[in-house]
Design a protein that fits this description.
The chain has one domain (about 15-104). It has a three-stranded mixed sheet. The protein is an alpha+beta fold. Strand 1 and strand 2 (about 65-70) form a beta hairpin. It is about 50% helix and about 15% strand.
Length: about 100
């Protein structure tokens, strides 16, 4: 008696979970969405506690990151360092995840 029906037998090939997960994201065209959610989720770790505590909301639409900052001076400083923030995001998550940042 066979354990699996014909055509659905398991193979002995093994792959690391990370590779399989990335293949799955590619197959279902969810890689961009996953990367965007990861940027939002890890904003505090990426920017630090001070920026994270003064960030009221974050969202990404059409590869543009919208960050609502509650502190005026911090917002101006972030606008001046926009290219550095963009390069941090590109370095960690890929350059196609976020193409622009708008500070509100």
């Amino acid at each position: 008696m066979k354990k699996y029906p014909t055509g659905t037998q398991r193979t002995s090939n093994t792959s690391p979970l990370k590779e399989v997960f990335e293949e799955l994201l590619e197959a279902y065209k969810l890689k961009d969405t996953y990367s965007e959610k990861t940027v939002i989720q890890e904003w505090g770790a990426l920017m630090g506690k001070t920026v994270a505590s003064r960030t009221q909301s974050l969202s990404i639409r059409k590869k543009v990151l919208y960050a609502k900052i509650s502190s005026g001076p911090l917002k101006k400083e972030m606008i001046m360092n926009k290219s550095k923030i963009m390069s941090l995001i590109a370095e960690k998550y890929g350059k196609d995840v976020v193409e622009d940042i708008v500070f509100l």
